[in-house]
Every structure is written in structure tokens, then in C-alpha cells.
């Protein structure tokens, strides 16, 4: 069980997405998942070992590290990737439900089970709203937990058992900051893609609805 | 999810590339990605652990390491490879869009559609002409730009391509100017020069492919202007045969790459 599972899941979603949805899947694969696995994971790999405090008091380093990094950046990043990809499952489940229904009744109930209309359109819109929501929640969480997206090279710690205010040094702060900004940029790009897809779908289907009503009235 | 997945994504684009494009993709996977994964990552694996400063002052090593390596070579290469592979996705999306349109035409029962079934549409190879030519050419242009930008960033950040053995650091909290020693500097220099050399080869291949596409485009245009009656079927058959042969050669190369990278 690893990121390959998420990759397979998203490939399945790709079939039922719009054009913008497919661009979103490509951005998530290449600029978020691949960058996470190929580059970012290794930067944070030894963050605890390399976190050094100017003190010999046993336990001080552990306590300070825990105080400044309640949840590590890299774990938040992984959680964000998982939560943001999961709403797409709603669409997959709905299509599977439609196909099951057709099989059960042994007749063609829908023009095509994967076509985005009616109930599936609502599910798709809900999944887009959830995706955008999760992105924003995680960005806000990052901002609040770490006071912005900067990673300082020095933090001052005076939690017990440290005897006084102690200097603690974070490893690779510049590299971590560069990748955090990259994470923020790709999240914002994904939010923009989701919002454009949402507007596109709402616009397309309102026009369709309006035209149908107009034709009906004329008849 | 790893480089193997990127190979699967780009492998689809390979079918619609020129011969030079296929060589570029092979060079990318064998001489860059594979070398990165199999060798370079091990060389840089212990870089902070073995970065040693001649001081007992806690924090001095961390600060000096961060000062001299704002972003590690290995991460910069990984980003470079990701960015350089991405323009090929534009081509993949364009091809997918074209396929989708042809499938729609087929389903509507359009008489213009010359395919017998959907499988044929799925397997069909599109020639690089019309709007696909523009997408393909822009993807090569973007590749060139990304390669050049990353090479310059590398040169700018590390003052050249050599890895020095010793660095003098006086960032706070180091008490004075302190000697810091980099681990495996010669091996790192060798790999850096190797990666830069292969990047340059890739740039040359991209430039050659761009020239080839432009030359072909202008020749075709002048032929059309000079001779309105020509036989497209005969030309297409010869091109298709040559491309099938190239595909067989590059597929067999890439099968060995998949074996290594998985």
C-alpha cells in the first residue's frame, strides 16, 4: 500500500472527468505527488536527528522539537494530497452505482453511465467543492501552525526540562522553505483549476437548461 | 508513484514523436533518471551527516550547511527532470483531445470518419501536422527554456560545477571562521559534470528536433505552393514504415529501462 494506490485511483477518475479535470489530475500527479516522492520526502527524512539545540540537558531537544513541529510539514503535505484526491471517489462510486442499476434492471436507464448529467453532475460539483475546501483548509492549517510558510534557521526554546532559553537550529531551512512555497503554488493552481471547472460546468448546464426550457415554451 | 509512473505517462507520447524525440526520451530515461535514481541519490544520500565542521559549537554545522547548500544538487536535478518532462504532457493532452473528437465523430456515425471501429481510433498514430505541430513545437521550446533555466540556476547557485573540498563559514552561531568539509567532493563533481553534459546533449537534441520540424514545415509549404497535385498516400506509407521501425527500436530500449527502474 503506497502512493501507487492513489495513482491508480486518480487514473480511474480521469475517465469521467472534463478536460479541466484531466489537467487537474496531471498537475496532482506530476507537480505534487512526483515532487513529494522524488524530492521532498528526503529533505524531511532526518529532520529530528538533525535538529540540534545548544544544550546538553537530556530531553530538551525532544521537547523543543515537539513544541515547534507538532505535525511535521511533510506529514501535513501527505495528508493534504490524500484528502484532496479522495472526493473524486464520490464520482467513481456514483458511476458504479449507475452501472449496477442498469445491470439490475437489465435495461438501458442512462444515455451513458459516465456522462456528467443529472445526479452525476451534482456529485461532480460536490466533489469539486470538497476538493477546493480541503485545499484551503490545509493551506490555512499550514499558515496557522507554522506562522506563515517561512522556516527559520533558529528557534528559541524554553520548555521544561530546558534550564533556560536555548538556541535550537533547524536543518536545511532554506530548502524546506523553497519546497513549501512550491507546495503552496501548486495548491493555489489546483484551487484555480477546481474553481474554473466549477464555473464551466455551472455555466454549461445552466445554458443547456435554459435552452431546453426556451424550446419547450416555444412548442 | 515514482519515476516509473512518469515513464508510463511519457511512453504514450513516444508514439507520436519524431525520431529525434524518441532518442531524447531514451537519453532522458537512461542517462538522467536512471543515473539519478541508481547512483546519484546514493552519493548525495549522507550529505548532511558527513558534512563536518571544525567546531563543537552546536548549530554551527546546520547553519553552514544551509548557507552553502540552499537547495541540494539532487533535488534541483529532480525538479529539472520533472519540469523538462512536463511539456510532453501538452502533446499527450492534445492527442487525447483529438482521439476524443474522432470517437465522438465515429459514434455520431459521421461519414467523414474513415475508421471501422473504436479500437482503431485508440491505436491510431497521429502525424505531427496542423495544430498538433504547433503544440509539439511549443513543447520542445518550453523544454529548451526549462533546461537552460535550470542549468543557469545551478551555475549561479554553486559558482560553477565543481564541488570544493573545504568551505570557510562564519555564519552565526559559529564563533569565528570555521573550516567545513564536504563529503565525497570528487565523486559529486564527477556526477555533476556528467549530468551537465547529458543536459547539454538533450539541449542539442531539442535544438536539432526544432530545426528538423521547422525545415520540414517550410519544405512542405514550398512544395504545396510549387506542386498542388501530390500523392499524400505514398508519402504517408513510407513515413509510417520508417516510424514503425523507429518505434520497435526505441520500445526495445525502453523495455530494458523499465526492467532497471522497477
From TrEMBL, chain A:
One cellular component (GO) term of this entry: connexin complex
Q: Where is the Connexin N-terminal domain?
A: 42-75
- Extract the Gene3D superfamilies matched here: Gap junction channel protein cysteine-rich domain
Organism's domain of life? Eukaryota
Keyword line:
Cell junction, Cell membrane, Gap junction, Membrane, Transmembrane, Transmembrane helix
Instruction: Please state every residue range assigned to the domain named Connexin cysteine-rich.
Output: 134-201
- Spell out the PROSITE patterns in the cross-references: CONNEXINS_2
Q: Enumerate the transmembrane spans.
A: 21-39, 77-97, 118-143, 178-203
User: Where is it located?
Assistant: Cell junction, Gap junction; Cell membrane
The keyword Cell division belongs to this UniProt entry's keyword annotation: no
Q: Which SMART domains match?
A: CNX, Connexin_CCC
Alphabetical list of InterPro entries matching this protein? Connexin, Connexin_CCC, Connexin_CS, Connexin_N, Connexin_N_sf
- What topology does it adopt in the membrane? Multi-pass membrane protein
Q: Which GO-annotated molecular functions does the record name?
A: gap junction channel activity
Q: Name one GO biological process term.
A: cell-cell signaling
Q: Function of this protein?
A: One gap junction consists of a cluster of closely packed pairs of transmembrane channels, the connexons, through which materials of low MW diffuse from one cell to a neighboring cell.
Q: Which family does it belong to?
A: Belongs to the connexin family.
This protein's assembly is summarised as: A connexon is composed of a hexamer of connexins.
> What name is this protein filed under?
Gap junction protein
From TrEMBL, chain B:
Q: Which one Pfam family would you cite for this protein?
A: Connexin
InterPro entries reported for this sequence: Connexin (IPR000500), Connexin_CCC (IPR019570), Connexin_CS (IPR017990), Connexin_N (IPR013092), Connexin_N_sf (IPR038359)
What keyword terms does UniProt attach to this protein?
Cell junction, Cell membrane, Gap junction, Hearing, Membrane, Transmembrane, Transmembrane helix
Gene Ontology molecular functions: gap junction channel activity
Q: What does this protein do?
A: One gap junction consists of a cluster of closely packed pairs of transmembrane channels, the connexons, through which materials of low MW diffuse from one cell to a neighboring cell.
Similarity section: Belongs to the connexin family.
Quote the protein name from its UniProt record.
Gap junction protein
Amino acid at each position: 500500500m503506497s502512493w501507487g494506490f492513489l495513482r491508480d485511483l486518480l487514473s480511474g477518475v480521469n475517465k469521467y472527468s472534463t478536460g479541466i479535470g484531466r489537467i487537474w489530475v496531471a498537475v496532482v500527479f506530476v507537480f505534487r505527488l512526483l515532487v513529494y516522492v522524488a524530492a521532498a520526502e528526503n529533505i524531511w527524512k532526518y529532520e529530528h536527528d538533525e535538529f540540534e539545540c545548544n544544550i546538553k540537558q537530556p530531553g530538551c531537544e525532544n521537547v523543543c522539537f515537539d513544541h515547534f513541529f507538532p505535525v511535521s510539514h511533510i506529514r501535513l503535505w501527505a495528508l493534504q494530497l490524500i484528502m484532496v484526491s479522495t472526493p473524486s471517489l464520490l464520482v467513481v462510486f456514483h458511476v458504479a452505482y449507475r452501472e449496477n442499476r442498469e445491470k439490475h434492471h437489465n435495461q438501458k436507464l442512462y444515455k451513458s453511465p459516465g456522462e456528467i448529467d443529472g445526479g452525476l453532475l451534482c456529485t461532480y460539483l460536490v466533489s469539486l467543492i470538497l476538493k477546493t475546501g480541503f485545499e484551503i483548509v490545509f493551506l490555512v492549517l499550514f499558515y496557522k501552525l507554522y506562522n506563515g510558510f517561512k522556516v527559520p534557521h533558529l528557534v528559541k526554546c524554553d520548555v521544561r526540562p530546558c534550564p533556560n532559553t536555548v538556541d535550537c537550529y533547524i536543518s536545511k531551512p532554506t530548502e524546506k522553505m523553497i519546497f513549501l512555497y512550491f507546495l503552496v503554488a501548486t495548491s493555489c493552481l489546483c484551487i484555480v483549476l477546481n474553481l474554473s471547472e466549477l464555473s464551466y460546468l455551472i455555466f454549461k448546464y445552466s445554458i443547456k437548461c435554459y435552452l431546453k426550457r426556451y424550446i419547450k415554451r416555444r412548442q | 508513484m515514482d519515476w516509473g509512473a512518469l515513464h508510463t505517462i511519457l511512453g504514450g507520447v513516444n508514439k507520436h514523436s519524431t525520431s529525434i524525440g524518441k532518442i531524447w526520451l531514451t537519453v532522458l530515461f537512461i542517462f538522467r533518471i536512471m543515473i539519478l535514481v541508481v547512483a546519484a541519490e546514493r552519493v548525495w544520500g549522507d550529505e548532511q551527516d558527513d558534512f563536518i565542521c571544525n567546531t563543537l559549537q552546536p548549530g554551527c554545522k546546520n547553519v553552514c550547511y544551509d548557507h552553502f547548500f540552499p537547495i541540494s544538487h539532487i533535488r534541483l536535478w529532480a525538479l529539472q527532470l520533472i519540469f523538462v518532462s512536463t511539456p510532453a504532457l501538452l502533446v499527450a493532452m492534445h492527442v487525447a483531445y483529438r482521439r476524443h473528437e474522432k470517437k465522438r465523430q465515429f459514434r455520431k456515425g459521421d461519414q467523414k470518419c474513415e475508421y471501422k471501429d473504436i479500437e482503431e481510433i485508440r491505436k491510431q498514430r497521429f502525424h505531427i501536422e496542423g495544430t498538433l505541430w504547433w503544440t509539439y513545437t511549443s513543447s520542445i521550446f518550453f523544454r529548451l527554456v526549462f533546461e537552460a533555466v535550470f542549468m543557469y540556476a545551478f551555475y549561479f547557485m554553486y559558482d560553477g560545477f565543481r564541488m570544493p573540498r573545504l568551505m570557510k563559514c562564519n555564519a552565526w552561531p559559529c564563533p569565528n571562521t570555521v573550516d567545513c568539509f564536504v563529503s565525497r567532493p570528487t565523486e559529486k563533481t564527477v556526477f555533476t559534470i556528467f549530468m551537465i553534459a547529458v543536459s547539454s546533449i538533450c539541449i542539442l537534441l531539442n535544438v536539432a528536433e526544432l530545426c528538423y520540424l521547422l525545415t520540414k514545415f517550410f519544405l512542405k509549404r514550398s512544395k504545396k505552393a510549387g506542386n498542388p497535385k501530390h500523392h499524400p498516400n505514398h508519402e504517408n506509407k513510407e513515413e509510417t514504415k520508417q516510424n514503425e521501425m523507429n518505434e520497435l527500436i526505441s520500445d526495445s530500449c525502453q523495455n530494458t529501462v523499465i526492467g532497471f527502474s522497477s
